[in-house]
């Protein structure tokens, strides 16, 4: 049975710039916004765009991510003959086990894609926060008769060196591409969203693998190869909210922006829902001493302190006389009594003992890692 488009979500990255938050879990599995994990946005976009054949390519610390995604039923991807399939590295005849880059990850999964027999393959990053109708980008790809279409948007010049940047002509055809340049010539950045004609991309990957095996990454190798061969490469401009949450500061600020009821993501939009695989837990409980202002409190929480302009994820406990301000607390964290937390990210399963202070600033967000324990009695002998 032929599928028009297969979506491949690349979710194997470590996310080293997130430091302690990704020591035990992959970056796409990092909690976000109280009820979600980062990968939920790409998965929900696929579901809402009618793209139900999804491969999720994992590698680094995949257990939590694999359990979270499952077969995609939480996003409705298992309907209409579709599903989400977890794709992990494996030993090949050449002895290769781990993915060497984004393009190599797709090459190792050619058999999976060929079984779907698609005309197009959409490559997505699993670590960005955004809503996007992929069908509109696919329609554009067809109209332009492109062999490759790249989702793009302008970024601040000071951030441009973190991205692949490009120049286009008057028809939006890409004529120059730089991958994370030290001195960028443009601030038109790749969003890490690509649509390829599958037969063409497959030929590039297979032919190169038989030769010098240099096409391991889309940004560094495949796009430049397409440019050298004068392929029809076009830029698709995206004008909505999109954020790469690859640093502590960007992850914190994205969560703080998420608190705005007028936020561009419009999380309450019933026509474009963001789905997740959430635990079945108890309702939240606020004690008589609890005080909550301008915050999101999710299910399973026990709040006996003060919460101001913060996101409190599911199954978090906050003790008496504790104060949480301008912070994001991930699931299952336990915060004791008389604790003060400001401008911080508290990792999943962390324990903050009585009387502890964790105070950050706009330029230095404090971070407590996954299952980390802070404060309390320590025996130094």
Automatic annotation (TrEMBL):
<dbReference type="GO" id="GO:0005978">
    <property type="term" value="P:glycogen biosynthetic process"/>
</dbReference>
<feature type="binding site">
    <location>
        <begin position="179"/>
        <end position="180"/>
    </location>
    <ligand>
        <name>alpha-D-glucose 1-phosphate</name>
    </ligand>
</feature>
<dbReference type="InterPro" id="IPR056818">
    <property type="entry name" value="GlmU/GlgC-like_hexapep"/>
</dbReference>
<dbReference type="InterPro" id="IPR011004">
    <property type="entry name" value="Trimer_LpxA-like_sf"/>
</dbReference>
<keyword id="KW-0320">Glycogen biosynthesis</keyword>
<feature type="domain" description="Nucleotidyl transferase">
    <location>
        <begin position="7"/>
        <end position="259"/>
    </location>
</feature>
<dbReference type="InterPro" id="IPR023049">
    <property type="entry name" value="GlgC_bac"/>
</dbReference>
<keyword id="KW-0808">Transferase</keyword>
<feature type="domain" description="Glucose-1-phosphate adenylyltransferase/Bifunctional protein GlmU-like C-terminal hexapeptide">
    <location>
        <begin position="289"/>
        <end position="364"/>
    </location>
</feature>
<feature type="binding site">
    <location>
        <position position="190"/>
    </location>
    <ligand>
        <name>alpha-D-glucose 1-phosphate</name>
    </ligand>
</feature>
<comment type="function">
    <text>Involved in the biosynthesis of ADP-glucose, a building block required for the elongation reactions to produce glycogen. Catalyzes the reaction between ATP and alpha-D-glucose 1-phosphate (G1P) to produce pyrophosphate and ADP-Glc.</text>
</comment>
<dbReference type="GO" id="GO:0005524">
    <property type="term" value="F:ATP binding"/>
</dbReference>
<keyword id="KW-0547">Nucleotide-binding</keyword>
<dbReference type="GO" id="GO:0008878">
    <property type="term" value="F:glucose-1-phosphate adenylyltransferase activity"/>
</dbReference>
<dbReference type="Pfam" id="PF24894">
    <property type="entry name" value="Hexapep_GlmU"/>
</dbReference>
<comment type="pathway">
    <text>Glycan biosynthesis; glycogen biosynthesis.</text>
</comment>
<dbReference type="InterPro" id="IPR029044">
    <property type="entry name" value="Nucleotide-diphossugar_trans"/>
</dbReference>
<feature type="site" description="Could play a key role in the communication between the regulatory and the substrate sites">
    <location>
        <position position="98"/>
    </location>
</feature>
<keyword id="KW-0119">Carbohydrate metabolism</keyword>
<dbReference type="Pfam" id="PF00483">
    <property type="entry name" value="NTP_transferase"/>
</dbReference>
<dbReference type="InterPro" id="IPR005835">
    <property type="entry name" value="NTP_transferase_dom"/>
</dbReference>
<feature type="binding site">
    <location>
        <position position="164"/>
    </location>
    <ligand>
        <name>alpha-D-glucose 1-phosphate</name>
    </ligand>
</feature>
<feature type="site" description="Could play a key role in the communication between the regulatory and the substrate sites">
    <location>
        <position position="59"/>
    </location>
</feature>
<comment type="subunit">
    <text>Homotetramer.</text>
</comment>
<keyword id="KW-0548">Nucleotidyltransferase</keyword>
<keyword id="KW-0067">ATP-binding</keyword>
<keyword id="KW-0321">Glycogen metabolism</keyword>
<dbReference type="InterPro" id="IPR005836">
    <property type="entry name" value="ADP_Glu_pyroP_CS"/>
</dbReference>
<protein>
    <recommendedName>
        <fullName>Glucose-1-phosphate adenylyltransferase</fullName>
        <ecNumber>2.7.7.27</ecNumber>
    </recommendedName>
</protein>
<dbReference type="InterPro" id="IPR011831">
    <property type="entry name" value="ADP-Glc_PPase"/>
</dbReference>
<comment type="similarity">
    <text>Belongs to the bacterial/plant glucose-1-phosphate adenylyltransferase family.</text>
</comment>
């Amino acid at each position: 049975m032929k599928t028009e488009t297969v979506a491949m979500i690349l979710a194997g990255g470590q996310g080293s710039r997130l430091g302690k938050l990704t020591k035990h879990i992959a970056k796409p599995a990092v909690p976000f916004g109280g009820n979600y994990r980062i990968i939920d946005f790409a998965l929900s976009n696929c579901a809402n765009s009618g793209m139900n054949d999804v491969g999720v390519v994992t590698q680094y610390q995949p257990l939590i991510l694999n359990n979270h995604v499952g077969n995609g039923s939480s996003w409705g991807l298992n309907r209409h003959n579709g599903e989400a399939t977890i794709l992990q590295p494996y030993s090949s005849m050449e002895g290769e086990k781990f993915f060497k880059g984004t393009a190599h990850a797709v090459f190792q999964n050619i058999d999976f894609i060929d079984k779907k027999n698609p005309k197009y393959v959409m490559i997505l990053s699993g670590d960005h926060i955004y809503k996007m109708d992929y069908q509109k980008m696919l329609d554009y790809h067809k109209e332009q008769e492109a062999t490759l279409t790249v989702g793009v948007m302008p970024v601040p010049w000071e951030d441009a060196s973190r991205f692949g940047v490009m120049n286009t002509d008057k028809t939006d055809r890409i004529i120059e591409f730089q991958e994370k340049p030290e001195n960028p010539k443009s601030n038109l950045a790749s969003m890490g969203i690509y649509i390829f004609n599958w037969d063409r991309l497959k030929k590039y990957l297979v032919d190169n693998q038989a030769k010098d095996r240099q096409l391991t990454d889309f940004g560094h190798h495949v796009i430049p190869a397409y440019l050298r061969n004068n392929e029809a490469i076009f830029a698709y401009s995206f004008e909505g909210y999109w954020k790469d949450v690859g640093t502590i500061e960007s992850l914190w600020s994205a969560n703080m922006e998420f608190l705005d009821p007028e936020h561009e993501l419009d999380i309450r939009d019933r026509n474009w829902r963001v789905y997740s695989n959430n635990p079945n837990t108890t309702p939240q409980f606020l004690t008589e001493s609890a005080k909550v202002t301008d915050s999101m409190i999710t299910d399973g929480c026990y709040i006996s302190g003060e919460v101001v302009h913060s996101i409190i994820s599911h199954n978090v406990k906050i003790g008496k006389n504790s104060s949480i301000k301008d912070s994001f607390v991930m699931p299952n964290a336990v915060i004791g009594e008389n604790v003060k937390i400001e401008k911080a990210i508290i990792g999943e399963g962390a324990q903050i003992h009585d009387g502890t202070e964790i105070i950050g600033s706009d330029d230095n967000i404090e971070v407590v890692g996954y299952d980390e324990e802070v404060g309390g009695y320590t025996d130094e002998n």
